[in-house]
From TrEMBL:
Region (Disordered), start-end ranges: 328-366
SUPFAM superfamilies with a match to the protein in the record: NAD(P)-binding Rossmann-fold domains (SSF51735)
Keyword Transmembrane helix: yes
Entry keyword set: Membrane, NAD, Oxidoreductase, Transmembrane, Transmembrane helix
Transmembrane segments: 35-55, 67-88
Gene: LOC111354128
Naturally occurring in which organism (per UniProt): Spodoptera litura
UniProt-listed InterPro entries: NAD(P)-bd_dom_sf, SDR_fam
GO function term, MF aspect, one: oxidoreductase activity, acting on the CH-OH group of donors, NAD or NADP as acceptor
Name of this protein: Estradiol 17-beta-dehydrogenase 11-like
PANTHER family: FI23927P1-RELATED (PTHR24322:SF748), PKSB (PTHR24322)
Family, as annotated: Belongs to the short-chain dehydrogenases/reductases (SDR) family.
CDD domains, alphabetized: 17beta-HSDXI-like_SDR_c
Amino acid sequence: MSIETQEYVNGMRPGPLTREIPECMRDKYTVVQAIIDIIMFVIVGIGYVIKAVYLSIVGRPKKDLKGAVAVVTGGGGGLGSLIALRLARLGCTVVLWDINKQGLEDTVKLVKGIGGKCYGYVVDLASKEDIYRVAKKVEEEVGRVNLLINNAGVVSGSYLLETPDHLIQRTFDVNILAHFWTVKAFLPAMMEHNSGHIVTIASMAGHVGVAKLVDYCSSKAAACGFDEALRLELETQGYTGVKTSLICPYFIRSTGMFEEVNSRFVPQLNSNDVADRVVMAIRTDEPFALIPGFFRVLLPFKLLVPWPCMSELIRKLVPDAVPVPVHPARPATDAKVPSKPVQLEAKHGAPGPMTVMPPARHDRQV
Ligand SMILES: NC(=O)c1ccc[n+]([C@@H]2O[C@H](COP(=O)([O-])OP(=O)(O)OC[C@H]3O[C@@H](n4cnc5c(N)ncnc54)[C@H](O)[C@@H]3O)[C@@H](O)[C@H]2O)c1
C-alpha cells in the first residue's frame, strides 16, 4: 500500500498546504519562481501569437527540399502517390514503401516520367521486422533519409462487434505501430544532424469519433498523440532542427479508402488539394494542418457543447461512413484468414524475394 493510501485509510490525508515538497524541488519551485514563470509564459506566448498572425498574413518562408531523400509509406497509391509526385517535382529523391507491388511499379513509372528520382520497396508495414530490414536497405542503397511521411493507412469499416479481431489488429499495426518502427529507424540519423522532418498523416477521425470506424478513429487519435508527444520530446531534448507535422484531413475523394462515404454539408476533399496542402505544411514547417482549415474553429466546440448536441451534429454530417462494406467476404470471428503468401521482389527492378501477405483492399492503382 502506498504511503498516500495508508494516510487516507488512517484519516491522516494531508491537504495541499501540509503536503511536503520534495527536497530536490524546494529551491526550484518557490512561489516567487512560479510567478516569474507565469509572467514569462504570458509575454513569450503573446510574442508567439503575434508572430503566427504576422506569418499568416505575409506567408511563411518555404524551405527548399531539393536533394532531400523522402520516404513515403503507402506511396503505391492514393494520397501517397500524389505526395510523391509533388516531392519529386521539388527535387526530392522519393522512396516509396507499399505492400502493393503493382501500385508501386506504376507510381515509380509516373514519378520517373516527370523526370523524378524514385525507388520502390515492397514492405508490409504490419511487420516490424520488415520495416527495420527495409529501412536499413534504404539507408545503404539510397542514403540518409531527411523526410519521413507516414501516410499508409487501412480501414476495417464495420461496427465494432462485426469487425474481426485480426482486422482491428491490422488497423493498429499499420495506422500507428508502424509509425513507431519507421521513426525509430530514421530518427537517430535526423537527431545526429539536428535536421529532418517527420510527417504523420492522421485524420479528422483522430479528433472526432464516427460510427463503423471505432478501430480507425482510435488508431488515428493515437497517431495525433504520437505526433504531439514526439514533437515535444524533440523540443525538450533540444533537437529543434527536427520538425514534425500532423495532417488531419476530412474524407478525401478518389483515393479509394472512403469511396462511398455518405457525407453531408462538408464536401469530400479533392485528393490533389490535400496533397498540395501536405507539401505546403512540410515546406513551411507547420506543426499541424486540419483540412479543411475551418475545422480548426469548429473543433473546440466539441468540448464546449453538451454531448447530445455533438452526437446530433456528427450523425447529421456523416450519416454513414462506410455504406458499402470494406471486407464483405471476411468472417466476423477471429478465425485465421487463409491467405497464401506471395513472392514479391524486394525492390523495384532488383532481385531479392520477400514474403508478404496478398493485398486485400490495398491493390488500387494510381
Ligand atoms: N481517404 C480518405 O478519405 C482519408 C481521410 C483522412 C485521412 N486519410 C489517411 O490518408 C492516408 C492515405 O490514405 P488514402 O486515402 O490514400 O488511402 P489508400 O487506401 O488509397 O492508400 C493507402 C496506401 O497504403 C498502402 N498500405 C496499406 N496497408 C499497407 C501495409 N500493411 N504495408 C504497406 N502499405 C500498405 C496501400 O497499399 C495504399 O497504397 C491514410 O493514412 C488514411 O488513413 C484518408
